[in-house]
Every structure is written in structure tokens, then in C-alpha cells.
Amino acid sequence: MRAAIAAESAGIPSVSVLCEGFAGQASATARGLGWDGLALAMTVGHVDAQDRDEMVGHFVETTIPQIVAGLVSPTGEQEYDASSKEPTALEIVASGDLDTIHDVFIDRGWSDGTTFAPPTEARVERFLGASGHDPWKRLGVAPSSGRDVTIWSIAVNAVMAGCRPEHLPVLIAIAEILLDPGYGAEHSGNTTGADALILLDGPSAAPLGFSAGPGAQREGTPANTAVGRWLRLYLRNVFGFTADELDKATFGNPARPVLGQDRRCLRELGWPSIGEQMGHGPDEDVVTLARMNSGVLIGSVTGSVAEEIIPYLADGIARSASWDLTHVHGLGSDQFSPLLVVSPLIARTLHRDGRTFEEVQLHLFENARITARSFERYIGEWSNLTPGRPQLAELARSGVVPPIYGESDDPDRYVPVATRPERIRIAVAGDPNRANAYAFANDGPHGWWTSARIDHTPASDLACRIGDTDCR
Predict the structure, then answer these.
(1) Which of 152, 307, 377, 457 is the most interior residue, by most CB within 10 Å?
(2) 284-307 pLDDT tens trace
């Protein structure tokens, strides 16, 4: 899509050719980049599952006519308007008992399938309560769907998810990240099904009910669970990521609870939180989002010194990465940034051994490696994502990747999965009495690490009450 946009920007007609079934996602990506209505042409079937003659036959018969039609038709004649067939904010869309309302929301695709609190006007008004926010204030436009991102829509989905009114500033900060072009929310429905992980840190996290302790990624703590559920509902209902609209995830993930961080442990060790790693101050409340493809449990970590512990942790980081490495070169550049979550016990053990946070990052970088042969298979042979299937040594010689990837032509040499130590993010959470860790593979530019400060200051922009007709 980016090549097509560059061509159109230069006044050159373009058509983007893509696999069957991806029209919705392609349109969402183009819309998110400011070009609605780019011409598309579909191939028949999946290109990697056909022989050459079959693929060429389908291309000549079906795809070429679409390319010709796209080149002779003006771009952007039909703009996407998600709101044209949807109810207004205060319209009553269902009435009756809870089962009836539940069924209506399921039928219309507004629910994740589990029981929710019906977002009545009274409930939403109580949720916004003393926040001072004008419910009709527009924060921006969802780049994938064209729908307005408003305080009202944030509150409606918050009521459904079971959030509490004091969580509103956290939700607003997350919505701001979703609107940040650097995050790239329009990619939230890509086929690998990566889903956003919310990381929260700061002095207000615990008072707001967020846990960083045992079962840090298990449902159960109301704040962590409800805010994580809110994100999935908001992506569904406002950003359009459902199977009927823009979500092309092959498998996907369940809604992830918020990952809190053990602030007491971090302060004790002098280690930076994720928010601080993103450039925020130690006393700021910060929420961070990054989309993760997969994860690897690193269980029962044994050892009392870094030399015994870090190779195992690094092995988990390396095992979590596969086709994601195209974000070192291919789909992105220097944009693979995995996350390692360690329990407080592991963090304290490394600190007791005299290792600083930066030293831990460096040692992980030095140990989280795979063979060049495997790396090249992931980015070009098995996943077919890097044109020409170049060797890492060639990419290094041309300056596309750092020199460390081209120190020799030996296919069995070990190369890092991340381009530099600081690309490996480290969080501290979980049971303080267990020696376990977890490695997440980041989806690179399809949900890049983005953070926002949480502003708890009561707003003063309330223009009217929710039911006032003049303010609709």
C-alpha cells in the first residue's frame, strides 16, 4: 500500500495487488495512511499454494482485468463512512431483559460473546460522573474505520467491559495511543493475529486496583481484566476489527489483561520501568502498548549468578522469534523489539550478582541468537517475505543491517535476533517467590511500542449533560 500511495502522491495511477480475502484490511491500511479508496486487484487463492501454471492462469483471467479497471478509474471516488448505517449515540438499540439485550449485541457484532453490563444512558452518565469530560468531545478519528473516537464511545465500551470510573484516564491514554500514527492501529487485523499488550506503571497503578503480582497475565484482578477487555471491545466496536469488517487474524489471541509492573521491586533495584524505558519520568503514570505475536514461557529458571541465568532467558527470547525477524529487514527496519518479563525473584538475583539493568540488556543481546541459516529461512525461505531471499552477509555489506550480521559468510554462525541491546525491553512482574519468565515476540511496525502519560486531572470541558439534545 505504501508504494501505491507514493505513486498516487506523485500523480501516477496505481493498483495494489493482494491475496484474495484481504480487501478489507488493505482498505483499512490505506485509510489509516490518509488514502481512502485506493484501487485494488485480487489474486485467486493463496499464491504459495498453487503451481506456476495455475497461478498464471488465474492472474490472466481475473487479476489483470481488475488492474486495468483500477488504472483507468479515479482513486478515492467512494469514501468509507462507517457511521452511515449505524445508530446515533443516544439511540435506544435494544430493550428487554439481559438475555434479550445480550442476543441483540451478539447479532450485531457489538459484543465479545461474554456477559456484559448493558450500556444504558444512566450507567454511562454515572461512569463519566465527576470526570468533567464533555461526553461528545472528539479525540480523533479511528484510522481504520473512520468512526469518531469520543469520550462517549470510550465510556460506553468501558461500562460493557466492567471498568470503574477511576479507570477513565487510563482508557483515554490508551485511546490516544490507538490514534497515534506511530502505533499504526490500522494494522490491528493482520493475518498473524498479533494483539496489543497493555503495560501499566506508575505510582497510581496499585491505588487504582491494578496488580503486578501472581498470575500477572491471568484474568481475575478486576482492573487488569476489565481494561484489557475494554481494549478488545474498543478495537471491535470503534476501530472495526471484527471478522465481518477488517480483522483477518488466522487465529488471534484472547483479550490480554493489563500487565502491571512491580514498582516496589523496580525502585529497590534502580531498574527502569517500561514507561521510563520509553522516555517518561519515574513518578509519571504511563501506559504503553505494543502488539505481540506470540510468547514463550521460560520456566523454573535455575542459577544464582547471571552466567547461569541469562543464557536461559536469552534462549527464550530467541525461541519466541521466527518470521517476526522480517522487522529487522523486510517489512520493517530495526523494528523487532521483543519483551522479556521476569519475576521479581529473577530480577533481584541478577541485581545481587552486581548486574545493572543495562548490563542485563547487553548480556541478553549477546546470548539471544540463532544461526544465520535459520534467520535467513525465517525472513525469506519459509515465510517468503523478503524479496530475493538475500543473505545476511549481503545485507550487512550493503548497510541494510548492522555489521554484526555480516561478520562472515558461514551459514552456521550465530547472529542476534534484535539489532541492539536497547531493543530488548524488560519488565518485572509476577509471583515474587517464583523463578519464571516470559518472552513476547513483538510485531514491529504493525503495532510499534508507543506510550502515553496518564492524566488524572479532572477535566473542565464539560459543556452539557449527556441527555441535553442541543449537545448531541
Answers:
(1) 152
(2) 999 999 999 989 999 999 999 999
Tell me, yes or no, whether 68 and 198 share the same domain.
Answer: no
Across 57-85, average pLDDT: 69
Residue 357 lies in a domain: yes
Residue 16 lies in a domain: yes
Residue 64 falls inside a structural domain: yes
In this structure, the answer to whether residues 50 and 199 fall within a common structural domain is no
More confident: 84 or 327: 327
Is the same domain home to 196 and 340?
A: yes
143 inside domain: no
Q: Let me know whether 55 and 199 are in one domain.
A: no
Cβ within 8 Å of residue 116, ≥6 positions away: 102, 105, 160, 161, 162
pLDDT in the model for residue 472: 46
Residues 58 and 196 in one domain: no
- Give per-residue pLDDT as tens, 147-191: 999 999 999 999 999 999 999 999 999 999 999 999 999 989 888
Q: Which domain holds residue 322?
A: 192-204+211-217+260-453
In this prediction, residue 78 has a pLDDT band, given cuts at 50, 70 and 90, of very low
